[in-house]
Amino acid sequence: MAHDHNNGLEVIPKDPAKIKKIWMTALILLLITAFEFVLAFTMDRGVLLYALFIILTIVKAYYIMMEFMHLGEEAKPLFYSIIVPIIFLIWLVIALMKEGAEIFQMRW
Amino acid sequence: MSSTAIEIKSKRGVWGGGNEPLKASYGKLMMWFFLLSDIFTFGAFLITYGAIRMSYPAYEGASAEFVSSNEYWPIPEMIFDALPLLHGMHFPLVFVGLMTFILIMSSVTMVLAVEAGHRNDRSDVVKWLLWTLLGGITFLSCQAWEWSHFIHGTDEGTMLEYVNSLNRLVSETVFGANLLVNEYGPAPFAQLFFVITGFHGFHVTIGVVLLFLAFYQAAVGIYEQRGHYEMVEKIGLYWHFVDLVWVFVFTFFYLI
Questions:
Q1: pLDDT in tens, B36-80
Q2: Is residue A10 a part of any domain in this protein?
């Protein structure tokens, strides 16, 4: 297997800092998820808890998109064409949850 | 003046082909377009879930005394509390927590595979892709068990009054779930569960197929011959997206 790399592709050595950053991101994601579990079992259900869940979810989404998908390294127009629609989408989620609550008032 | 002329010339060049708009390669750009449209699809699902969820009465009272009924929306931690091989015991959200852990870890091994691809390190790419593949398959197996348990239900079932498929109001004990009625809560609860987690599972399945493709092609040296590992990067984008969607499904379905 010594001539595994005979196509002229040179293997670049590992950058430990980069690898460490990936594992740190993983740790952050897992810690946030664990924290969500703690909240789920200790806090009373209500708007405050739901708001916390949604904020923590957006924090996780931020780490996945920036660190794992490297969206931050893309050209700015591409970056904003992905991010801006998502921000409006979050608005729509919240707006229609409110609307659902209004339907509840009418129906029951 | 002359600098203006040069600028116009280079602007024409943008549409002349053979370049990379937005400094991203064709494949990566198209993957981002696809992911954006997929974000809208899952966004629509979550909006539907949120709106329907809020239009039903919430369960009021202590979580520990929760009893299923189709009069109000169930508390997820009292519904999703089963583990394989431990029949009838109460482990709230443990299994779904495990599934989340598996998917996040497979996303980490995927990003390590992409990183190895940047370094043209074939053996590392193959190793990390194999781990990712394993994570994906494990997640799917967990979901299969979860669905099976959800469909078959608990031993006790729930006494419900509902309109059956013959349009008759009946009062009977319901076990498990289908699209018409379920023992956990109002009918839309199970409907949304099947559609949203089902669609996500379908994405994971496609991801596993793509991962296998990348694993095979990397292992036999196709990418090395091609001179780059961009395919791993593109499939990586898709796989992270599947993880991203699960993060939202987890919050909305299992926590809220």
A1: 999 999 999 999 998 999 899 888 877 777 888 888 888 888 888
A2: no
ipTM score assigned to the predicted complex: 0.87
- Residue in A5, A13, A77 closest to B22 by CB: A77
The answer to whether residues A66 and A85 belong to one domain is no
- Whether residue A1 lies inside any domain: the answer is no
A61 and A92 fall within a common domain = no
Nearest Cβ partner of A40 from B58, B77, B225? B77
Whether the pLDDT of residue B201 is over 90: the answer is: yes
Residue A86 sits in which domain range? Answer: 75-108
Contacts A23 to B, Cβ<8 Å: 108
Q: Which long-range contacts (CB under 8 A, 24 or more apart) does B251-255 make?
A: B251/A36, B251/A53, B251/A54, B251/A56, B251/A57, B252/B46, B252/B49, B252/B50, B253/B49, B253/B76, B253/B192, B253/B193, B253/B196, B253/B197, B254/B76, B254/B77, B254/B80, B254/B93, B254/B96, B255/A36, B255/A40, B255/A53, B255/B76
A74 and B51 within 8 Å at the Cβ level: the answer is no
Q: Which residues of B touch A104 (CB under 8 A)?
A: 54-57
Inter-chain touch A7–B92, beta carbons under 8 Å: no
Same domain, A94 and A65: no
Yes or no, beta carbons of A100 and B224 under 8 Å apart: no
Residues A99 and A86 in one domain: yes
For residues A85 and A68, membership in a common domain is answered with no
If you count residue pairs, one on A and one on B, with CB atoms under 8 Å apart, how many are there? 147
Partners of A14 on chain B (C-beta within 8 Å) are 119, 121
Domains delineated in chain B: 24-255 (1.20.120.80)
Q: What is the pLDDT of residues B211-232, one digit of tens each?
A: 999 999 999 999 999 888 999 9
